[in-house]
């Protein structure tokens, strides 16, 4: 069944390419101009899809990037007599600069704040364009030259169609190249769970900037082509209404899918052109469609096939838990475990002391348990160690190097991996992608290879897949490689989280309540896995409430109560200490063991 | 010096309008955690309804405005009902849902009233006051007065009534609110309706000062939103301070930078948001990644 | 006067079995404790009873009402008060407003005012801080506020979720005596706690939960002296 699908795609693509190539011959003058406009919006939409759908960044300034590209070309050719292509290149540079500017707020704020800031910047751009003399103000710029290609002026709309088609195809290809490889995976992980992505080594801030730069490149390119096509630009093309129309295209088409964005763009452009005399009705239509899609089908048109598939799968039980393979040892990474040293750690939240001068030490090849009653600060401790919080006092050292106060991604690159109390897998990434994402230890600036050395990206991708496959095999998860986390039984999801953590070849592994919700069998398997991890030399620190598991698994135990360490040592001795009993069971004299 | 005060007065009366818009945003955000991108369109709807009641139905302005506010409140209830399934889910999706709702409202406005827009004559016939050489249109004072009264009423509602307290409680802790018997969904609907009413009031009051058109909500909505954020999202005194601030900044920017006033306002606003996203009074929203 | 009857209650969160099967009754005027280590399923049981999370299986009845059919916001009308884990006071509102909201389901009239003074009598410190914002109170004071808020609706059954969490032993004493006083006044209590000793002081009967099931039951007096309780807590 899968093989048929696999064969379908290249055939389908080939058919589509042929249709697209032959199309202009069947279109009259009106329709070719519609097609030309549609392709431009498709390019814009892909850019918006990359930043909003793939990277999860709200960007209501996409139309401004469009404007920067168009006005860049317009101003440089009409006022300064630049040749078209030189002007285009400079306009693209300007668009990328605009992308960086618009992306800056994304480093501080997200979601609705980011929405309003980007919208505001778009309005500011529009304001400038409407008023500045250099842009021709309200009347715009006319007389933009046609771009010459191989000596031929592309004044014919038919020929221009091919230029746009090639650019769009290249844009889509590059877009898919990004999405399907490590950069795209990181962006999608960031979208799904920025916290977990950071803990797995993703440089969130750089990734957000990259997302905006990508959007601006596509937007600028569309603007450049637009100027060369229409030869006239005016502020009304880049209005907020057009931004919302563009947003509608991406939402209705499916923002997480690039081809969905294209379909949405082409569909809405055609509909808009056809309904040009009923413009208000068209607007009413797509507005209602956006609301309907958002409430009932958030993944848009592109999400329909997988929803249908999932609906059909509901009849069939899907992958059964029996497909879980046995755990066959941790692939050795050649790295030795790290020494974790926590000294006098203090963490204060608005006057509440969550950690009160906590000190502890964990050595390689040992399992240290952190236990304590509810609210004693255990997860806070992990959050400080993994960089989610900056401590109010004290420090955390890893092999002698201070890591407290560093960002989560940097701590991850020093060799710290963790799991979370409330399972944080990347929901829209397959199990394989979850693991591959963590496995990827390259830094973000490595992404320059996407433009200048794509072969390197490809090779890296193959290597990642091979290693990730090995990890999945070792953890018995090979059968689930292509599954989405939410479709899997809880116990298997837990194991995936551990596999993901181990994929980054850590020297220190922090496990936050790994046994929560597991049944007896699963707990036994978990213990086996944790012991094997310890045997491979990794330092393991474990928070658990399941005292039976802690007693049997941990070499040493530290007991926290109200943020302070009240006991530490070998489990059996700690359990006998009165302070510990009090912390758990409460004050009052306790009965002595009758034995 | 005169011109300074002239600009200031004009800024304050626009600021009063922005404060009302910001109040509406803040109320909805505080109670539902929702940033309503349809707020501008709701404002526009209120402006059109008020002007229709005033001009076409010949109702006195003082009746047209409350009627418009009520009608728009109902529209608000409708929008909330449609988007309710998203309330506890994806924030970004809800944001986009409100953008869609705003687009729908704008399209309906164009269909009913055409896109040409209309001017609304000032309902106050008296000559402008002259205070030490500064011309103050009486209507501007009316606007400031109505806005002030509304804010007092809203504050009283939130602080002194059971429903108002419940609305605040829902914003702080929906589960604990449920445990004491508050219907969270209904409370949110009322909050949304009041927010819409405030936007409609702002739009109605602004209609004699600005040109009423289907796209008037875009710029005003963003200004009001910026005011809400500046003052601190979720804070009523913040909405007032933010609104007056944006109004005054905008007024002076228009004076000094002419057409570029929007641009200046937004660049200033962007920088402020990045430096201090909490605004003057609000809560932290910055994440550390 | 109604009895709370819970039979074979099971709760699942997204695939995790938080509670596998729990059964108990709370007759009118009686107090029952649910104790156990963390993750044992105590909080989930309470939240499922309140209707804040769905039940996967089992039934819960209060008198002749099937609690499964009652939405969470109507629990207070049945006379069931809820003190959530972590207090959950309305931080931005003053203490008195928090208490008044506890009586949301009825009119804010003189009988409500009378109830307010009763709560101030039980927790004098709340009376002293009545104008302060709830968020500015200490943990112990917030806990008293949360209990007081639940009492404002004159409940006949009070569900408490880990009231001692994060409190110093002295404050735990204060809460303990307050609960004993309420019990003496005839209020039924269902107390979920990790602090076993506190629970034994306040309740007549206890269930010890472990991994979502009942590991032991007995009268509080008997359990207090039973070394098996310690074993269950500490996994020995």
Describe the fold and architecture.
The complex is a heterotrimer of chains A (595), B (289) and C (236). With 595 residues, chain A is of the alpha/beta class. In chain A, 56% of the residues lie in helices and 11% in strands. In chain A, the strands form four sheets. Chain A has a six-stranded mixed β-sheet, sandwiched between helices. In chain A, strands 6-5-8-9 form a four-stranded antiparallel β-sheet, with helices on one face. Chain A has a two-stranded antiparallel ribbon with strand order 1-4. Chain A folds into two domains: 272 residues, ABC transporter involved in vitamin B12 uptake, BtuC (Orthogonal Bundle); 157 residues, 3-Layer(aba) Sandwich (Rossmann fold). Chain A is elongated, with a radius of gyration of 28 Å. Chain B has a single domain, classed as ABC transporter involved in vitamin B12 uptake, BtuC (Orthogonal Bundle), CATH 1.10.3470. A two-stranded antiparallel ribbon of chain B has the order 1-2. In chain B, helix 1 packs antiparallel against helix 8, helix 2 runs parallel beside helix 4 and helix 5 crosses helix 6. The radius of gyration of chain C is 17 Å and the shape is globular. Chain C has a six-stranded mixed β-sheet, with helices on both faces. Chain C has a four-stranded antiparallel β-sheet with strand order 2-1-4-5, with helices on one face. In chain C, 36% of the residues lie in helices and 27% in strands. The interface between B and C is medium-sized, with 17 and 26 residues.
Please render the helix and strand layout as text.
The complex is a heterotrimer of chains A (595), B (289) and C (236).
Chain A lengths: L1 H21 L6 H26 L7 H17 L5 H20 L7 H21 L9 E2 L5 E2 L2 E2 L3 H24 L1 H11 L1 H6 L4 H27 L1 E2 L6 H14 L4 H17 L4 H18 L7 H10 L26 E10 L2 E11 L4 E5 L6 H8 L7 E6 L2 E2 L5 H6 L2 E3 L12 H9 L9 H4 L1 H21 L15 H14 L4 E5 L7 H16 L3 E5 L3 H7 L2 E6 L2 E6 L1 H6 L1 H8 L10
Parallel strand pairs in A: 7-12, 7-13, 10-11, 11-12
Antiparallel strand pairs in A: 1-4, 2-3, 5-6, 5-8, 8-9, 13-14
Helix pairs in contact in A: 2-6, 2-9, 2-10, 2-11, 3-4, 3-5, 3-9, 4-9, 6-7, 7-9, 7-16, 10-11, 10-12, 16-18, 16-19, 18-19
Chain B lengths: L1 H31 L6 H18 L4 H23 L7 H23 L15 E3 L2 E3 L1 H23 L1 H11 L1 H6 L4 H23 L9 H16 L4 H22 L3 H15 L14
Antiparallel strand pairs in B: 1-2
Helix pairs in contact in B: 1-5, 1-8, 1-9, 1-10, 2-3, 2-4, 2-8, 2-9, 3-8, 5-6, 6-8, 9-10, 9-11, 10-11
Chain C lengths: L3 E10 L2 E11 L4 E6 L5 H9 L6 E6 L2 E2 L13 E4 L11 H8 L7 H13 L1 H5 L10 H13 L5 E5 L7 H16 L3 E6 L2 H7 L2 E6 L2 E7 H5 L2 H8 L2
Parallel strand pairs in C: 3-8, 3-9, 6-7, 7-8
Antiparallel strand pairs in C: 1-2, 1-4, 4-5, 9-10
Helix pairs in contact in C: 2-5
